[in-house]
Structures are given as C-alpha cells and as structure tokens.
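Q: Okay, next protein. This is Class I SAM-dependent methyltransferase from Aequitasia blattaphilus. I've checked the sequence twice, so it should be correct. Can you predict the 3D structure?
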Amino acid sequence: MLYKSYDYLAEVYDELMDNVPYDIWSDFIIHILKENQIENGLIADLGCGTGAMTEILAEHGYDMIGIDNASSMLEIATDKKFEKDLDILYLLQDIREVELYGSVQAIISICDTLNYILEKEELKRVFQLVEKYLDPGGLFFFDFNTVYKYETVIGDRVIAENREDISFIWENTYDKEEGINCYELTLFVKEEEMLYNKYEEIHYQRGYTLDEIKELIEDAGLEFTEAFEDYQRNPVKKKSERICVIARKAAKKEEIK
C-alpha cells in the first residue's frame, strides 16, 4: 500500500533514525544558543517530527514549541512528552503557514526539513515567517542538504538495510534540471513471527546551494551570520553534503551598539 509521506513511517521513524547523532547535534545547538546569550526561554522547532530534538532542548531548560504538518508524527511526539513529563507545546501546522501567539528567542529546523520545501518562493516565505516571529536579535539555526549531496552522493542510488524487525529499500532518483530528489521508500515491518507487512511512501526534496540560501535569507529580511559544515565549525566546501546556517533578526535600533 502506498502511503503519504510519514503516514506510516512515523510508526518506525525513531527506530530508523537511531543513527542520527542527536546528542552531538544538540550539544552543538545548545553551544550556539548559549554563545548568543540564549540560556533559556522560548524556542520553536520547525519540522519537529517525533520530537527527538525538541525533547532534548526541553530537558535543558528551554520552553519548546514543536511544529510539524504530519499528525502521525505529532501523535508519537505527544505520547513521548507525557511519558517523560515534559512541558512541550506541539502544533499541527505547515511551516509555510506558521502562526504563533507571540515571538520566540530562537527558531531551529534540523534534519533537512527545509529541503522538503520544493519552491524557492515558498522557502522565502518560511524565512519571512521566521523573521516575523523572532524576537529582535533572535537566532535562527537550521541545516540543509546540498545540491552536491543529491547529485553525487545519493542521487540515482539505491540504499537498503536489513534489520531483525524492520528492513527498508530507499530508491533515489535525482532530476538535475528541476533540482528535485525523489525517494521511494519501501518498508518491510515484522508484525508477528514470520509475517512482515510491506509499506511504501514517496518523498520529494530539493537541493539548495549556500548562495541560494543566503539570498533567500536576506530577501526575507534576516541577517546571514555564519555557515559551516555538518554540525562542526569547519568551513563549507564544494563537497559539503550538509550545511548548518546561523541567521538572525535585526536588533531594535536602540539595541544596536
């Protein structure tokens, strides 16, 4: 059966993402936040999924808002927050149409969430909403997969993994002219002894260059601050696969020194 993106994947998402170094990523993000005098306060997580990073930041004393357009992901995130007794607000919203009650000190978006925005004008709209809801001087931290990664590393490649209770086949097709990577995900999930059910989903992502991202940030009224390679403070290279970006909203004039 063919499912919409994350309809069924949500059920096994955390298991499949167990190779993501959330501890390393969160340490890096928290360091960036504290480096910018954000020790606590309100933070929004765009494309929070099942809440893995949202939970970690909440456990470090931040007041978290998790935002995602997949109800199946948020259902799992909500169950986990109650299990861990965490005070997190989850909102079912498309990040292109975010509505918050007020401003926040920082906004994050990780794990190539923004690559799911397939049109530049729509990504600019996301950045405009970030600018709208950030406090003056507020911080925006996000990552994205590069064109190089889709063209050279995963494009037109099949990735498969066989585990005890779940296996997957991940078929990538990259359209260089459109800049869109399509990946068809087939899951085989063990339901009972010797019985596996098959699930299929299709996902689309767009690769961006750092120059494109900078332009969209500035067009949205944000200030580009810094970019580096994959949760390390290494310079961006031509062969960088994931880039982290820091941008900010301009401070009020009286706050500018």
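A: Here is a summary of the prediction. The longest strand covers residues 180-192. The mean pLDDT is 91.
Q: Noted. On to the next one.
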